[in-house]
Write a structure and sequence with these properties.
By secondary structure, the chain is an alpha+beta fold. It has two domains: 67 residues, no CATH class; 347 residues, Cytochrome-c3 Hydrogenase, chain B, CATH 1.10.645.10.
């Protein structure tokens, strides 16, 4: 019946990090309400940082996420260094990019092979996928292992690294430690190319959006640690102006804030799809050749094809990492000396899931007066809800289970980090 009410609930979204829920209510073919109900308790890291030494910040914020701790550490130390007027030497900057490559590798390899690929191949988990696609799953696990190995060598350990410091690193790796990684990374580059070709052959739903893509852009390199904020609608913004252009809003159904364009409440998209769309000409040579081979137009508005963007970034991360590994020469400078002073610093880096913004106010004793952290999943929440409003009418005729599966599949395209966003997912569809 045209006015039939319908509610779909999925109590726990699978193959994402963290906990939350989705509520969808329909009346006939009309979508009456879509809510990402993020119910994971907020962890209040910004408040926990107040009064702590600025040198403790990197270790504390690393605990926000076990998958992308480097992103939080890098954004934090960059912001604090700007507050103190610290400029690190080129060799430290290069090693920070190398560390970021390791995080992109382990995060993208996990998501592509075990979390997202099952959706395209008709499996409910990475374990069931492994029964029929053993070689691909083993490849993904090995790629992730090599990313973790790099984090261990340069970061001190793979989970919540401890070697990142304001001004540089606490210690630099020995030449032999770096050299030992090169053979595995040579294999990894070839494996990343094979991965990208594999996922590009998936069958993608015909669903495209006119996204406002937002990411860092850099004149000389693919953005990781530095750059200015750009968008497809012409934004060109210094990172320190982030809070003038983007605002966080509290919504009743979520413990995570929603980020929108200031003054308009418009959603926007961050993440691999945005990065590749705005920076494809800065990808590594092998990744650029793959773009030509795969014949996908960038910017791309199909959220499901974000898996291809992650594949391209996986290739880029391995190729850039190899370049740095082969050229590495240990120096005597691992950390810049500095003096405490009062100041405020802003920074944004590109976490695997998208733009991550930090702001810190430091007093003259080196203590944190205030902190602000805007995670990528928090920024994408409003856009996910907007995508679902467009998707649900297209698959509305499906039975409740099928509709719930389609909603989950779309959300997984974003690779949401729900725990990061609580500073989601249950799916519930309500046909009134």
């Amino acid at each position: 019946m045209a006015d039939e009410a319908r509610t779909i609930r999925v109590e726990a979204l699978t193959r994402v990090e963290g906990e939350g829920g989705l509520y969808v209510r329909l009346r006939g073919r009309d979508v009456e309400e879509v809510r990402l109900e993020i119910y994971e308790p907020p962890r209040l890291f910004e408040a926990l940082l107040r009064g702590r030494s600025m040198e403790d910040v990197a270790d504390i914020v690393a605990r926000i996420c076990g998958i992308c701790p480097i992103a939080y550490q890098m954004s934090a130390v960059h912001a604090i260094e700007r507050a103190l007027g610290i400029a690190v030497p080129p060799e430290i900057r290069t090693l920070r990019r190398l560390l970021y490559c390791g995080e992109w590798i382990e995060s993208h390899a996990l998501h592509v092979h075990l979390l997202h690929a099952p959706d395209f191949l008709g499996y409910d988990s990475g374990l069931s996928l492994a029964r029929d696609h053993r070689e691909e799953v083993q490849r993904g696990l090995r790629l992730k292992k090599h990313g973790n190995a790099l984090l261990e060598v340069l970061g001190g350990r793979a989970i919540h690294p401890i070697n990142v410091a304001v001004g540089g690193f606490y210690r630099l790796p020995r030449r032999e430690e770096i050299a030992a990684l090169i053979p595995d990374f040579e294999w990894g580059l070839d494996a990343a190319v094979a991965t990208t070709r594999w996922v590009a052959g998936f069958e993608f739903p015909e669903f495209s959006r006119d996204y406002d893509l937002v990411s860092l852009v850099h004149s000389d390199e693919y953005p990781m640690n530095e750059g200015y904020i750009a968008s497809t609608d012409g934004l060109n913004l210094d990172v320190a102006q982030f809070e003038q252009e983007f605002q966080e809003q509290q919504v009743p159904h979520s413990t995570a804030l929603h980020a929108v364009r200031a003054g308009t409440s418009r959603p926007y998209l961050v993440g691999p799809l945005a990065r590749v769309g705005l920076n494809f000409d800065k990808l590594s040579p092998t990744a650029r050749r793959l773009i030509d081979e795969l014949s996908i137009d960038w910017p791309c508005g199909n959220p499901y094809q974000s898996i291809i963007a992650r594949g391209l970034e996986l290739v880029h991360a391995f190729e850039e990492a190899l370049t740095i590994l082969r050229a590495y020469r240990q120096t005597s400078t691992c950390r810049v000396k500095f003096q405490h002073r009062a100041g405020t610093g802003h920074a944004a880096t590109e976490a695997p899931r998208g733009l991550l913004y930090h702001r810190y106010e430091i007093d003259d004793a080196g203590l944190v007066v205030s902190a602000k952290i805007v995670p990528p999943t928090s920024q994408n929440q409003r856009q996910i809800e907007d995508d679902l409003r467009s998707l649900v009418p297209v698959v509305e005729a499906a039975d409740d289970q099928r509709l719930a599966e389609q909603c989950e599949r779309l959300v997984r395209s974003y690779d949401p980090c729900i725990s990061c966003s609580t500073h989601f997912l249950k799916v519930k569809v309500d046909r009134v």
